[in-house]
Design a protein that fits this description.
Helix content: 25-40%
Largest sheet: 7 strands, mixed
Radius of gyration: 22 Å
Order of helices and strands: EHEHHEHEEHHHHEEEEHHEEEHH
Structural class: alpha/beta
């Protein structure tokens, strides 16, 4: 097929959490530039949440439905998880693209997108790829699509969908109408409303709030201690025991307090201090749906010993010792970036 450029492949990167016409325009620009297009689906493999309600497979379906049959045959999709590590993420994107189109010489691949704000800096992280800036494609963002979808919970859905018809492909309207019938819709809408109310409390603050939290990764033999969250956000999802830093506590003291409150685990001060293997800060701006949340994760290794008795309480619906070998298969059941925290300490993914 003849194209107006010498590009062999074009790449589009996005989360596509509610496909709109601006995103579709980017994909069609890529189709005009190269015979083969790779769409990288970010934030893949995560649990459903108000921010990431659609699985990566559902997002692929949304995009495919918006393309013509000819266009769809020229597009391949690559799901990439959020590594919260720029170089590791870039390497994963490059590897995924290469798996689809092969190893191409510099200048044969074009990255199509737009430098809209600070969230677009990743577009500069691919030396050897040419860049095509498509410019601003309207004012709608995927967050507005999700807001319209979830604000309709408990009300007729059609007026909300009608408000989107000029901004999203017709196929996306049909997709959202069918998707809203899934059992997860009501719970996700409730989480969306909870987060919206929480953020409204800080709307009058002179500066955007920055929250400090703590988490405890407790390892014992071949298992780790996890809770199941009892309230939104992330209700019903697995997480590390943790919570907000108290004003008169160190992060270490807060980690031990939250651990005891949520799991009932209590060890002698000397034993728990000896078990501490490391503390890492996780501060990616997008790691939490609540906003800017910086956590201090404490890794404790209790060694080879009988598993201490635990019981969920406070914010935890339950607490349990989970085999480390099971964690890699549970990625889509974790709250926020807690799978990434476990991966960082335990090396769960390649």
């Amino acid at each position: 097929m003849n194209t107006p450029t010498n590009f062999t492949a074009a790449v589009c990167i996005g989360r596509f959490q509610g496909l709109h016409l601006g995103q579709l325009a980017v994909i069609r620009r890529a189709l005009a530039l190269a015979p083969r297009v790779v769409v990288v689906i970010g934030s893949a493999f995560q649990a459903r949440s108000a921010k990431n309600p659609f699985t990566w497979v559902e997002r692929v379906e949304m995009i495919r439905l918006a393309l013509s049959a000819d266009e769809a045959t020229r597009v391949a999709f690559v799901p990439v998880r959020d590594h919260y590590d720029s170089q590791r993420w870039v390497d994963a994107v490059r590897a995924g693209v290469q798996a689809q189109v092969g190893a191409l010489p510099p200048g044969q691949t074009v990255l199509v997108g737009h430098h809209k704000d600070a969230t677009s800096t990743y577009l500069d992280d691919f030396p050897g790829w040419m860049f095509d800036d498509v410019g601003r494609q309207g004012e709608l963002h995927s967050s507005a699509v999700r807001d319209a979808l979830f604000s309709a919970a408990g009300h007729p859905l059609e007026p909300a969908l009608a408000a989107l018809v000029s901004q999203v492909p017709p196929s996306t309207v049909h997709f959202l109408r069918a998707w809203a019938q899934l059992p997860c819709y009501t719970a996700l809408a409730a989480e969306w409303a909870s987060l919206r109310a929480e953020k409204a409390l800080w709307a009058g603050a002179p500066y955007a709030p920055v929250f400090v939290t703590v988490d405890a990764l407790i390892q014992c033999a071949d298992r780790v201690l996890l809770i199941v969250r009892g309230r939104a956000p992330g209700q019903g999802l697995h997480a590390l025991p943790g919570g907000f830093l108290e004003p008169r506590e160190t992060v270490y003291q807060s980690a031990l307090r939250e651990l005891h409150e949520e799991t009932g685990l209590h060890l002698l001060p000397g034993d728990i201090a000896h078990a501490l293997k490391g503390v890492r800060v996780f501060d990616h701006p997008d790691r939490s749906a609540r906003g800017r949340v910086i956590t201090h994760a404490h890794h404790f290794d209790l060694g080879e010993r009988p598993l201490p008795e635990v019981q969920g309480s406070d914010d935890a619906r339950s607490a349990q010792w989970v085999p480390i070998g099971d964690l890699a298969g549970m990625e889509d059941r974790f709250h926020d970036d807690h799978f990434h925290i476990l991966d960082s300490f335990l090396g769960l993914t390649a």
